[in-house]
């Protein structure tokens, strides 16, 4: 197995005559980069757009004294990947007078687990956290959150079967009057596939609760499908940020690039294990390196 960096270097070393990257050199390199992106499960359209942007930047650049042409193209690609993934690690901004975070995603993505992880993380930072188990159709999903809440040591407000959003809102307000909480994290219903009824119900609940953050939980292992999922949740529900789970698996991180590209929203966290402590800030530079292989 030859790494992408090595492949690019070979291509460019063979052709390098002048101190500038020529169009032919860049074109050959970009073919390799597109293949590498697709192998890392980046969505086809996202990969194409990415390569177009990088080509534009690379053609005609002077080759820097310390690098050869191959290294320079790899550097341009790496920098652009970091930029596309969000630049620096970012965290949601917390207001002092109350925050409601609305967690959305497909069933199995790791939404409930991530909700528990966030509760543990922010409790440790001194926040008064309340979890809301808001899957109005699956008592088992609510039960799972109650178990996590007990484990973390934060209260869980459970919605009732088929409870209307306005009732949930009212019950939440009543709860907060009795027991002040400055971070409310709402775990919502997920389905195995995107369906219209789910989207309508989520949009209604979001409207009633007026969250300060709406976070989509995306499974890194879903590869190509991540783009559709992110696009649909963004257009139907509206997102403010993303969480990529299962980064401890062998997924290369293409799902992160696709979801970020299509929504333009920051990736705040990466899930790195099944454990309650398995949540880290999302570091674009690390994932860029992993995508390049
Ligand atoms: P939900 O249906 O979206 O709420 O998904 P769950 O939170 O129930 O998670 C589904 C499965 O994925 C469970 O077995 C979790 O333990 C597992 N899981 C969630 N996040 C991660 C992660 O970051 N890494 C690993 N390895 N497993 C995870």
TrEMBL record:
Annotated GO CC locations: signal recognition particle
Protein's UniProt keywords contain Repeat: no
Record: residues binding GTP: 105-112, 187-191, 245-248
Domain SRP54-type proteins GTP-binding: 266-279
Reaction catalysed by this enzyme: GTP + H2O = GDP + phosphate + H(+)
Domain of life: Bacteria
A single MF term (Gene Ontology): GTP binding
Keyword annotations of the record: Cytoplasm, GTP-binding, Hydrolase, Nucleotide-binding, Ribonucleoprotein, RNA-binding, Signal recognition particle
Function field: Involved in targeting and insertion of nascent membrane proteins into the cytoplasmic membrane. Binds to the hydrophobic signal sequence of the ribosome-nascent chain (RNC) as it emerges from the ribosomes. The SRP-RNC complex is then targeted to the cytoplasmic membrane where it interacts with the SRP receptor FtsY.
Domain characteristics, as noted in the entry: Composed of three domains: the N-terminal N domain, which is responsible for interactions with the ribosome, the central G domain, which binds GTP, and the C-terminal M domain, which binds the RNA and the signal sequence of the RNC.
Name of the protein in its database record: Signal recognition particle protein
Species of the source: Deinobacterium chartae
